[in-house]
Amino acid sequence: MPLLDPEPGKLRPRRTEGPAADRVPDERASGTPDTLRADLVRLLGADKVLHALSDLVKYASDASPYRFVPQVVVIAEDVDDVAAVLRYAREHRRAVVFRAAGTSLNGQAQGTDILVDVRRHWTGLDVLDGGRRARIGPGTTVGRANIALSRYGRLMGPDPASSSACTVGGVVANNASGMTAGVTRNSYRLLSSLTLVLPSGTVVDTAAPDADERLRKAEPELAAGLPALKAEIEADPALVARIRAKYELKNTNGYRLDAFLDGSTPVEILRGLMVGSQGTLVFTKFVTALTGPVTEVTLPPGGHTDWEVELVVVLGKEGRHVSEADAWSHVAGLTVGQDISERVLQMDGPAPQFSLGKSYPGFAPTGPWLVTPDEFDDPDDLELTCAVNGEEMQRGRSRQLVFSVPALIARLSGVLPLFPGDLIFTGTPAGVGLGRTPQRWLTAGDELVSSIEGIGELRQRFSG
User: Fold this and answer.
1) Is 112 helix (H, G, I), strand (E, B) or coil?
2) Concatenated DSSP letters for 397-462?
3) Helix/strand/coil (H/E/C) assignment for every residue in 133-193
4) For 342, which DSSP code?
5) Cis peptide leading into 417, omega within 30 of 0?
6) Dihedrals phi, psi of 260, to nearest 5 degrees
7) Residues 111, 116, 119, CA angle at the centre, nearest 5°?
8) pLDDT at 105 (0 to 100)
9) What is the predicted pLDDT for the residue at 424?
10) Is the Cβ–Cβ distance between 392 and 399 less than 8 Å?
11) Residue 242 is inside which H or E element, if any?
12) 97 beta partners
């Protein structure tokens, strides 16, 4: 073929047989389920609820390679709308994801249940104190904010490359710093106050003089729990040093734990925790660690071996892009799991080795029974306990999980296919040895008993 001789056919997409790989399943053709649509229309008004399949598909992608088709899209106009959606989601055990821009490379602006758009009605900027401060709507782009501030010879600290499209809300939630902000001019250092809405629908304006008093009245458990966590952290010098070291480097991964060190009141701590507040950590336990319910486990020499009782989900059918609403139909049953973890190897650097530290032989006992979800009054609310030599170490309920079973299944199946027999360890209550003062580890001769109501218990003895 002569050089530069055109071949138009090579520019055309290849023909495929049958439906496209990303075709929405037929059962989604009607868009938002009728009950969910009716509830939200009654709550917010028809003009704020997008329910047609074309709308849902339009919101299924952001700048990441992932695709999650939501059940419904809400166009929130104000804080009251956000509070109403969160209260509804909590009451009906549904998940909510907020989209401030959609420029995420990691899929944080996507969800498989209720997606709330906070761009359209959330823009605006008031410059205060000659440009030293500004009150900025979360849907305002960084570029627009900088244009307004440049008149005063000022710019925002974070400078993400997508500043013309990314919004201030997303920059704060992702703790973005961009190319030059480093650790001194990132979102954590930039933010002096914000208005946030808790899952209960409680609205907190952290700039209000009586913000802490209002929080104590509306959310007494939260207002008491934050200072308690602060005290627990500050009582452990090694943990304080580790947290400080973590944030001396540029770090946009995970929650700002240093908020517990920097904040002096519940509201100040809460404000800091809102920076970088999106995302969850996923890791594996290799299959060779799996054992039955009653075992003897050999402790790794020189290690700090810890306990983590967990509800374990066993998948019953293959799933890809499973919605939260449909997640339980993919579950064959629930069982007890113990996520035994060796903390020295787990935290070994320069990159932590979570999977290796949790995968020594015998470090994943499960059992004693597989119980189908219909056997429980509420499979999302089961009590978990863990004891060492008869002393209770952990007690909690699965409803307290940061991410519910449906949320975990939806998120994982959006990235990789799930197969029958796959196990998902879902998370553990407070009380692990790592978080105790002083820290406590399993030793030779210890007996570890882990139980979940309605399922049974595991028993592990440890040898050196």
Assistant:
1) coil
2) EGGG-SS-HHHHHHHHHTTS-B-TT-EEE----S--GGGSSS-----TT-EEEEEETTTEEEEEEE
3) EEEECCCCEHHHHHHHHHCCCCCCCCECCCCCCCEHHHHHHCCCCECCCCCCCCHHHHCCC
4) E
5) no
6) -70, -25
7) 120
8) 64
9) 96
10) no
11) helix 237-246
12) 115
Amino acid code (one letter) for 412: L
Q: Residue 1's pLDDT is what? A: 46
168/151 Cα distance (integer angstroms): 19
Tell me the backbone φ, ψ of residue 386, rounded to 5 degrees: -150, 135
CB distance 215 to 266 below 8 Å: yes
Do 29-117 and 287-463 fold alike per CATH? no
What size, in residues, is the chain?
464
Cβ atoms of 330 and 418 closer than 8 Å: yes
| 192 close to 133: Cβ distance less than 8 angstroms | yes
Is residue 101 pLDDT above 80, yes or no? no
Six token digits for residue 266: 């519940």
Q: How far apart are CA 76 and CA 163, in angstroms?
A: 23
Please state, in angstroms and rounded to a whole number, the distance separating the CA atoms of residues 50 and 112: 14
- Looking at 3.90.850.10, 3.30.70.240, 3.20.20.80, 3.40.50.10780, the CATH number of the domain 287-463 comes to 3.90.850.10
Q: Do residues 273 and 185 touch, judged by C-beta distance below 8 A?
A: no
The one-letter amino acid code at 405 reads V
- Residue 152: strand pairing partners: none
Distance CA 20, CA 370 (A): 37
Q: Do the Cβ atoms of 230 and 265 come closer than 8 Å?
A: no
Which alpha helices (H) appear in 247-404, and where do they start and end?
A: 259-262, 266-273, 343-346, 354-357
State CA 172 to chain mean position distance. Answer: 15
Maximum Cα–Cα distance for the chain, whole Å?
83
- Nearest Cα neighbor of 406 from 81, 112, 40, 21 is 112
The C-alpha atoms of residue 201 and residue 341 are separated, in whole angstroms, by 36
CA neighbor of 300 nearest in space, from 428, 170, 462: 462
d(CA 298, CA 300): 6
Instruction: Provide the residue type at 221 as one letter.
Output: E
pLDDT digits (tens, 9 = 90+) for 432-458: 898 787 889 999 999 999 999 999 999
Sequence-ordered list of residues with C-beta below 8 angstroms from that of 374, at least 6 positions apart, any chain: none
Q: What is the mean pLDDT of residues 51-80?
A: 91
Per-domain boundaries in the chain = 29-117, 204-279, 287-463
CB contact burial 326-347 (16+ within 10 A = b; e otherwise) = bbbebbbbbbbbbbbbbbebbe
Class of domain 29-117: alpha beta
The 10s digit of each residue's pLDDT in 207-239 is 999 999 999 999 999 999 999 989 988 998 888
